[in-house]
Write a structure and sequence with these properties.
This protein has one domain: Metal-dependent hydrolases (TIM Barrel), CATH 3.20.20.140. It is built from 14 helices and 10 strands.
Length: 341
């Protein structure tokens, strides 16, 4: 499918899905079409309180979350399975020492594993790691894969002002590559840029910029090329990646470093990554993403409870249809997670 913007007579632009699909309409399956949500958050009560204490603020959206609320939203909107991932600022770090980070990682992973045991077909798990504690992360990787049977790990796009391509984190990716793991990244604002513009929340813009920073960090550290047995998943339709990818490839093409870190080319490395659609289902987002990566690399996500499941499911159905929509809803995810078939 080709996705383009076409000018109209009134100076606006119409989003067109060529190959016979023009403004694909809302799905009329009664909300029961099968979706697999690869971006779905959870909050153990003890951890939720710690986040509130750390941030010094109220978290009404988070406070309202329960496993039952997740299941209700899933049932209402045709989501068969949601893969759980923790999100807070900044992950399990929260200024904790090594022991504290390890404790929080184990607590949240055990909590999610209990949800899986209670509802084995409904929930998967991207386990939290106590980054930037590398030794603790290696210990937790062994536990979550060998004991909890996690579906992958969930990481933040930065750890303070250190991005994932930093050499310190190489042992973590070596082990994840050995296990042929799925690695999901959720963005967060780096400490350098939090609150940089008064009155503008980081979630409005900074988090999508940081997805781009994380991808470039891993790319130019050679992590994507060297650890090619990892399946990488990035949030929000890739954030800035679809926009900066070609610019990056063009401007860096004469650097001798590029041949080392991406011998098959930058486009090869970036178009084989996976991207999920949470709050990135809008026509401009999808047009940019589909102009750069094949449909096979895109999966459905919701960012629940920060956005509703309905908004993401209905919004995607407004700009996609047919086999491409079904691939994004569930088919592509089932290639990576066949146990949820």
């Amino acid at each position: 499918m080709v996705v383009v913007f076409a000018p109209s007579g009134d100076g606006t632009e119409n989003f067109i899905c060529e190959q016979g699909d023009i403004m694909a309409q809302h799905d009329h399956s009664g909300g029961k079409a099968n979706h697999i949500d690869v971006h779905h958050h959870f909050y153990p009560p003890e951890f939720r309180q710690a986040v509130k204490d750390f941030s010094g603020g109220s978290l009404p959206i988070v406070d309202a979350w329960t496993p039952e609320a997740s299941l209700e939203q899933m049932d209402m909107n045709g989501v068969s399975t949601s893969i759980l991932s923790l999100w807070s600022i900044p992950g399990v770090w929260m200024g904790a020492d090594v022991a504290g980070m390890r404790r929080w990682s184990r607590l949240v992973n055990d909590y999610a594993a209990d949800m899986q045991r209670d509802h084995p077909s409904r929930f998967g798990l991207f386990a939290a790691l106590p980054m930037p504690d590398v030794e603790g992360s290696l210990i937790e990787i062994e536990y979550v894969f060998d004991v909890l049977k996690a579906d992958g790990v969930g990481l933040m796009t930065n750890f303070g002002d250190k991005w994932p391509g930093d050499p310190a984190y190489r042992p973590v990716f070596e082990e994840l590559n050995r296990r042929k793991a799925k690695v999901y990244f959720h963005p967060t604002a780096p400490t350098c840029c939090a609150g940089i513009q008064p009155g503008i929340q980081e979630s409005w813009a900074e988090v999508v910029f940081d997805t781009g920073r994380a991808v470039l960090s891993l790319l130019f550290a050679g992590i994507f090329n060297e650890f090619s047995d990892i399946d990488w998943i990035f949030s929000h339709s890739g954030g800035t990646v679809p926009v900066i990818a070609r610019r990056t490839a063009e401007l860096s093409q004469h650097s001798p470093r590029v041949k080392e870190i991406a011998p098959n080319g930058i486009d090869f490395e970036l178009t084989r990554l996976y991207y999920e659609t949470a709050n990135g289902f809008h026509a401009p987002n999808m047009a940019a993403l589909l102009a750069y990566v094949p449909v096979s690399q895109i999966m459905f996500g919701t960012d629940y409870p920060y956005l509703t499941v309905a908004a993401n499911a209905d919004g995607l159905a407004e700009v996609m249809s047919g086999a491409d929509l079904e691939a994004i809803r569930s088919g592509n995810a089932l290639r990576l997670f066949p146990k949820f078939a």
